[in-house]
Amino acid sequence: MRDEEKTKEQLIKELIAARQQIDELKALETECKRVEEKLRQQNEYLTALHETALALMNRLELTDLLETIIARAGGLMGTQHGFIHLIEPNKTEMVAKVGIGAWSKFIGKRVKFGEGMVGKVWQTGRSLVVDDYRSWPDRLPDPNFDILRSVVGVPLKSGPEVIGVIGLVYLEEGRKFGDEATELLNRFAQLASIALDNARLYASAQQELTERKRVEVELRKAHEVLEQRVKERTVELSTTNARLEEQMVERKRIEEKLRQQNEYLTALHETALALMNRLEINDLLKAIVVRAGALVDTSHGYIRLVEPTETEMILKVGIGVFTNFIGHKLKLGEGLSGKVWQTGQLIVVEDYHTWPGHLPDPKHHILHAQVGIPLKSDNKVIGVLCLGYMQEGRVFKDEEVELLSRFAELASIALDNARLYTSTQQELTKRIKAEQTLAHYTQELERSNQELQDFASIASHDLQEPLRKIIAFADRLKTLYAGALDSQGQDYLQRMQNAAKRMQHLIEDLLQYARVTSKAQPFRPTSLKSVLQEVMSDLEVRLGQCQGRVEVGELPVIEADALQMRQLFQNLMSNALKFHKPGEAPVVRVGSRPLGGGYYEIYVEDNGIGFEQKYVDRIFKPFQRLQGRQEFEGTGMGLAICQKIVKRHKGEITARSVPGKGSTFIIQLPIQQSKKTGEDHA
Questions:
Q1: Which pLDDT score is estimated for 252?
Q2: Residues 6 or more apart from 320 whose CB is under 8 A from it?
């Protein structure tokens, strides 16, 4: 019998462990879905960003461009309300040039440096998010702005100088601009700034062209006059021609610069789109270096990534002369890459040989001009992209450095994408293994449940029948031959009868424990108050004997196995009446309160003898008792049955107690059970 009890305890432990692992696997599955959703959302944002950027580059008329920028920005953020302020030529005010939605009536409004949302962004040069404009301390006093709720402003820059501000607004209560939305809007503003520079450059060229036409008209008029006064105006005509030639040279210079910038932008976007399709890390790194080199006409470069320990940086991919340095490691602040890592800033070196921070190893002195650009994730340096020229005297131009800086931002996004994809693949592999493990434990659980049902069948027939015979023959022996036994024989007989009865109670309780799953009923809407009233009716005689009282509060209707709910309350109420303090009438309070997430908390509180809180886990284990059999009857299975019933209903049970002051048993149960759960346990 002891071996069977040990086997039963082992089966119970395995069942509990299996249930915990199932819960952990479900949590893991939820996390995988969250990561997949984040990856999908980020890809949608990037696609929208690039489509928007390409649309902006085709607009060179300033007003049309501004209207397109604010409309596209609103589309990215899911709002129809926004504005663009541009700095006035006197640089003392900004004026609202375009507005959409609620902001259309504020076109022409002016703000000063540091004034309101626009002035703050202009002053700091950084983006600003206000969750509720109405309560923002620096808001403008105009009551027309009371309709605004969440507001975000990001700077438009030309180089380091702020030339304007994009603002977007949510009018809906509780809707806010998150960190990811603000970061996306910042990147959009950088591309919009390039397009704005383009448009301004185009406008300047148009003005020059208009001026040239005007001069040509004047020249024609001058020619008419010159035909009459050739000799007197020869000097003036030469001067005019010289000025015209200068204007033509300047126009050609502007047109060439505009053409070159458009070529750079086209190459930048084609390269960025190509990177977004690569999700394998090493393949992506190689593509980044090759594409970056092509942008500035060099075939020498590398990428270093920060190691997980964050103490070293390793050269992962190299092209040209740097293929010989793959695997080389650097520390923070060491060499060009180490300095970029340390400062988080782009560094340009015109001649590596004379640069104070160069590495002493002559093998690194192959190149002359070098540029190191940080690759960042959430403003943290995760790597460095470095390019170099072998030709002496060849340096990186300002426009090339600016182009590489913007390229590095897009490359960082692609690298984040690839890392997230790699992480998702690893999680997917873990999930597959976990599902295999779950299938194994499910088979084991089914086997254990079958063994438990087999044992219940044996216990209900094979064990109880001989036990009933022992009890019956012991009663007959006591009735017929009690007079023939001495006092010691009668004591033995009494002990045998008591032991047989205890054995009978143990088998009955063990059967009840096994039937929680083997004889379970389907889940149906169940009034816990009605169930409790039936239990109180069953305990009416016992309540009268101990002069006990039960106070019942509100109890919910939930999906449950009504018979098991009755058994749950029966065991808890019986314990409350059994373990009352001598000389004091027991008082039991039963009630409930709603919890978040579709759960209810039910409590059963008594004024009994209580127990030490450190034993709270022990009392729910089978055959565990805190008092001796001489003090209180029972087998120690009542609370174990309660816990098994609660677990089957996807709930939790615990207790709080103070010795001498009573106990409170707390059960958390869901209002509704899933269909699959009901079928599995019916």
A1: 76
A2: 293, 298, 299, 300, 301
Is the per-residue pLDDT at 678 higher than 70? no
| Distance from C-alpha of 511 to C-alpha of 313, rounded to nearest angstrom | 65
Residue 278 has pLDDT above 60, yes or no: no
Check whether 21 has a pLDDT greater than 50. Answer: yes
Give Cβ neighbours of residue 350 (< 8 Å, ≥ 6 apart).
368, 369, 395
User: The tokens 């503003």 sit on which residue?
Assistant: 189
Q: What are residue 593's DSSP bridge partners?
A: 601
- Of the candidates 193, 146, 9, 176, which has an alpha carbon nearest to the alpha carbon of residue 79? 176
Checking if the pLDDT of 502 tops 90, the result is no
Q: Token digits for 309?
A: 């320990």
CA distance linking residue 107 with residue 171, whole number of Å: 18
93-100 vs 110-112, strand pairing mode: antiparallel
CB-based contacts of 548, cutoff 8 Å, min separation 6: 542, 577, 580, 585, 586, 587, 588
Judged against a pLDDT cut of 90, whether residue 540 lies above it is answered with no
Which pair of structure tokens corresponds to residue 336?
């060009």
Q: Which helix (H) or strand (E) holds 342?
A: helix 335-343
Bridge partners, residue 385, by sequence = 303, 373
Please check whether the two domains, 58-201 and 520-681, share a CATH topology.
Answer: no
Span 397-416, mean pLDDT? 82
Pairing relationship of beta strands 662-670 and 312-319 according to DSSP bridges? unpaired
Closest CA to 468 of 497, 440, 427: 497
Distance separating alpha carbons of residues 179 and 177, to the nearest angstrom: 7
Residues 474-486 pLDDT 10s: 777 777 776 777 7
What are the Cα distances from residue 6, in Å, to 2, 16, 437?
6, 15, 25
Provide the 10 A C-beta neighbour count for residue 386. Answer: 25
How many Cα atoms occupy the beta-carbon half-sphere of 56 within 13 Å? 28
- For residues 517-530, give the mean pLDDT: 79
Residue 539 corresponds to which tokens in the numbers above? 């305990």
Secondary structure string (H, E, C) spanning 573-636: HHHHHHCCCCCCCCEEEEEEEEECCCEEEEEEEECCCCCCHHHCCHHHCCCCCCCCCCCCCCCC
Strands 128-130 and 301-306 come out as unpaired
Dist. CA 167–CA 83, nearest whole Å: 5
**pLDDT reported for residue 680:** 44
pLDDT value for 486: 78
**Among the four given CATH numbers 3.30.450.40, 3.10.580.10, 3.40.50.720, 3.10.180.10, the one describing domain 58-201:** 3.30.450.40
Question: From the CA atom positions of the chain, what is the Rg in Å?
Answer: 41
Encode pLDDT of 320-337 as tens digits: 988 888 888 989 998 888
Residue 523: band (very low, low, confident or very high) from pLDDT cuts 50, 70, 90: confident
The pLDDT value recorded for residue 194 is: 80
Q: 662, 607 in Cβ contact below 8 A? A: yes
Q: Give tens-digit pLDDT for 541-573.
A: 888 888 888 888 999 999 988 888 888 888 888
Domain boundaries, the chain: 58-201, 520-681
Taking residue 162's Cβ as centre, other Cβ atoms within 10 Å add up to 19
374 strand-pairing partners: 384
Alpha helices in 58-110 (DSSP H): 62-77
DSSP state of 485: S
CATH 3.40.50.2300 fits 520-681, yes or no: no
Give yes or no for a contact between 219 and 240, defined as CB atoms under 8 angstroms apart: yes
Cα 9 to Cα 70, 414, 507, 534, 627: the distances in Å are 69, 54, 15, 32, 21
Look at residue 510 in the predicted model and tell me its pLDDT.
59
Which residue is listed with tokens 């599902």? 435
